[in-house]
Structures are given as C-alpha cells and as structure tokens.
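Entry 12.
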Amino acid sequence: MIRSAEFLARQWGPSASEWEGVPVTDGTRHLILVAGAGPAGMAVANMLTKAGHEVIILNRDIKFGGLVEYGIFPSKLKLRGGLKKTYWELLGNSHVHYFGNVSVGRNKDVTLDELRSLGLSAIVFATGAQGTKTIGVEGEAAKGVYHAKDVVFHFNRLPGYGEKPFDMGKRVAVIGVGDVMVDIAHWLTRYKRVEQVTAIARRGLAERKYNPKEIRAICANIDQADLAKEIERIGPRLEAVGQNPAELQKEMAEEFSKCEPKTSHTKVGFRFLSSPKRVLTDADNRVRALELEETKLELKGQDTAAVGLKQYEEFPCDSVVFAVGDKADDAVGLPYKNGTFVTNPTPSGNDPDDALFQAYDEASGKVLDGVFLTGWARKASEGLVGIAKRDGDWCAEVVQRYLRSKPVPDRAQIQRSVERLRAMFRERGVTTVSAIELRALESGEQEHGPSPECIGEFKFLTNQDMLSLIDEKRAASGSLPRR
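Predicted 3D structure (tokens):
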C-alpha cells in the first residue's frame, strides 16, 4: 500500500528544501570526508560530528552498515537493529551528508586525487577489505571453489552476489575455524541442508578462533563421535607441544552445552592439523576432493606454527570455501603493498600510534597529508563489528589531533566543497542515494514483508530494484528530493 505524502514526510524527516544544501552552523569547524559506511566509518563520522565538525560520507553500497548490513548473519535481527538505529541517528544530524551508491577509486565515480582537490580538512578511508585473499593452492579456480566473503555476501543478499548461484553439492570443506566458518556452516546446515560440512584447520583445537557463543548455532549438528576420533588421531602431535588432548576435548564439549535446536541432518565435523595443498578436480574442472598435508605444531614464542610433514591424503568433497581472511582492494588508489594499504612506519605526532592510521607513500617516503585509514581498510579481517567500531573511534581521535594544527575553514568554504562534490556527481550522471531516500527504501522493504528466499528481513537483490522503489515512493508522495 502506498502511504500518504503527509505520513511519508513525518517518517522520513525534513522536506526536500531542508535536505538540499544542509546549512552549516557556527559550531562547525572542519569538513571531513569518510569513504565507507561500515562500523568503522560510521564510528569516525559519529565522533567527528559530536566534536562539531561537518562530515561527508561516501558509500559504495546504497545502504549504510557494511558488515552490519552484509556481514552479520541475517537472522540476528536484534543485534543488527540496535546498530542500525545508531546509524540512523547519525544520518539525522544536519552536519552529516550521506551519498550512497558511490564508488571511490581508479575508474570509479570519483578518485582520491579528485577528493583531495575539494579543499577538505581530512579524508578517512573506511572502505573495508574488498579484495579476495587466496592461499595460492593449485586448482583454486575450479568450479565449486568459493571465497567466504562471497558466500556471506550471497546469503546476506548484497547486490551483485545475492543473485549468483552457489552450487555447494553434498559435502563442503570450509578452510578455517573462525566465526566466518561458523556462519557459513550455519547457512549450509540450516538453509542448504547439505550432507556434510567439515572445518579444516592447519593447526589444532587450541588455536580455533570462533567465539564459543557463535558455535551454538551449529553445535547440535556436530558429530561428537567423529570429533573424539579426530582428537585421538592427532593426540600425540598435540602432546608433543605440551597440549592436553583430553582437556581440549572437554573445553569444546562445554562450548556445545547450549546448542540451538537441530533443524537438519547435516553432519558438522573438524579436521585438524591438515593443510590444503591442492584442489583436485574431475574432467569438467569441478571439485572432487582436497589434497591435504598432515602438519605438526611447533612453538613460536607464545604461539604455535603449523609445519608440513610431507604426508598427503585425498579428502573427498564437492565444494571448498576458503575462510582465510580478505585483503584491501588496490583499485581504491591508495598506496598498496602485499594485500594491504600502506601506513606510516615511523611514529609521529604527539601520539606515536597516530602513524598507524596515516596513509603512506613508500615511493616518496612521505605520508599522504590528511589521508587516514581505519577498520578493515587499515587492517583487513581484524575482528568484526566491535573491533571495527573501536578502530573508528581511535581513528577519530587521531584525526582530531591532526586538525588542531590546520586552519579552520569558514562556513562558505565548507558549503562550496559540499556543493562541488554534489555537482560533480550530477555532471557524471552518478545516481547517489541520500539518507532521506534510504528511509523511503526501508519503508518499502518493510511493506514487502517476509519472503521465503530471504533469511531474516526482506532485501531487494539488485541496486536497480532499490532505486526503482525509491522512484516509486517519490512519485507517490512528492516529499523526496530530486537527484
């Protein structure tokens, strides 16, 4: 049902005239641009806005949230809802300008150099880790080999991924034992109902990385007898580095004491001290097995490392998911090396740790003045939402220290920079999405109601579907600003 213009105006906030060219108040000091609207970017924007600054947010996706929208398992509605409420409050601030559906980088909607030409006081990159990290094994381009990030984007219905087919077969090997592995196993167990999911780890039980609370989603499907056999199989290698197999097995059993109800006959298992060496394929280049090398543990200070034993075995499976982390996307245009953006290696400023957030050009040996990194853009795959938010808070403090030595622009300068960016997008035909338009989109998705193809809330599969819905709301209400 299309709602009245009066209702929409109340729900979506200010009228078009109030949102176009939001006035700058006397309390504003600097204009900062944040590229990325995930937990880290939104934390930076929130802290800087509270400090009295004006903030522009550019986001690749139409919707804000990043990991919150497309990374957290979609059935966790309470967690996602609380975070999104905070983000809506931020976007309701008159000092925040949100531009969704904008990509930053080489051959994108806007480049780093163009942003630096706008007269901004600082730029913060919170663009996440959009690159695909691999471990370089033979056969990883075969049919049925997937990257964990792509799978997570798929079941979270990120445009460009939600509509892609993911043929998992009956037996799935997931490389890694962290929270992402758990989410993928959750999807495979509860929604795909495959026959077998096996988490494969180069190291042992003590080095597992998942949160014990997260494992509750799948622990009812864990084959306890097979787990006991697996621990017995590797027991001597654990004892060789002072680990007690019986105690580790007890620890894992205690984690399985509050399992969610079982919803399928899928068996979930573990294969420890095993390193993938090759993806084995059939005549159609389709996965048929993994070649695994047995490993042992060696002590490295307080940590352990896996060392290959030159003993190999074929592990039958129909698909493989590499949950081994991500890397930064070099197309963003920042100094880049070995999968990460380069930060300042030399302590500087009043706080030596400020260098950790400063973009750095190794060729010139200089920092990119006023350009900062945070979240997964600074350190790919480091923690989830809470870690990213704390990193954003920390980055905001670094930026504020930087701004103390910079001249304060006047209101007219700030307004001109915002309008130059807006005009740039209009001239290039970039279809940006504002916060008020996001409210219209959210209203439309809620009206759609639950859908059997969606886990949790309904989401449109494509950007065009979302933009069309916004246009429909505009036509029906007349209360949305024209792009």
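Annotation: The chain has two domains: 5-130+328-477, 136-323. Residues 15 and 479 are 6 Å apart (CA to CA).
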